[in-house]
Write a structure and sequence with these properties.
Layout lengths: L20 H17 L4 E4 L3 H10 L4 E4 L7 E2 L3 H5 L20 H15 L1
Parallel strand pairs: 1-2, 2-3
Helix pairs in contact: 1-2
Length: 119
C-alpha cells in the first residue's frame, strides 16, 4: 500500500502517501479490509510516518515498510536502489551517504547497522 512503483507511469507519483485525510483514511480502510480477509503481513511503501504509526496501532499482522518510518515491524531497501541502478532514478528514501561507500557488501552492512541502531 502507498507507493506501487510497478503500477505507476508518471514520475510525480513517486511521493509520500497518506498526507491528505482522504488518502490517510483510504489506506487505513484497505489495511483493515485485507487484515479481515486473512493476510499474514502488510507491505507499505513511502507512506508518512504518522500513517505507519496509526497502522501499527490498529493492525495485528506484521507491517513491513519501505521508506515508511521507524514504526514498522521490519524494513526493506531494494538492492537496485542501494546500488544506485534503479530504473528511473535513485529514490529519496536512499540516503546519499551510502554512495560514498564503494562496495555493495559494505553498503548493505551499513544499511543493516543503521536500521537496527537508528530507526
Amino acid at each position: 500500500m502507498g507507493l506501487t512503483p510497478q503500477l505507476i507511469s508518471q514520475k510525480n507519483s513517486f511521493r509520500k502517501y497518506g498526507k491528505s485525510p482522504k488518502e490517510f483514511s483510504s489506506i487505513i480502510k484497505i489495511a483493515q479490509t485485507i487484515q479481515e480477509i486473512g493476510v499474514k503481513m502488510i507491505l507499505i511503501e513511502c507512506v508518512t510516518d504518522l500513517l505507519a504509526k496509526e497502522l501499527r496501532k490498529i493492525i495485528n499482522v506484521p507491517i513491513i515498510g519501505i521508506g515508511s518510518g521507524k514504526s514498522c515491524d521490519g524494513q526493506i531497501l531494494v538492492s537496485y536502489d542501494i546500488l544506485g541502478i534503479s530504473y528511473n532514478s535513485i529514490p529519496k528514501i536512499v540516503e546519499k551517504k551510502y554512495f560514498k561507500i564503494k562496495d555493495f557488501e559494505s553498503r548493505v552492512k551499513k544499511y543493516i547497522y543503521n536500521t537496527k541502531n537508528f530507526l
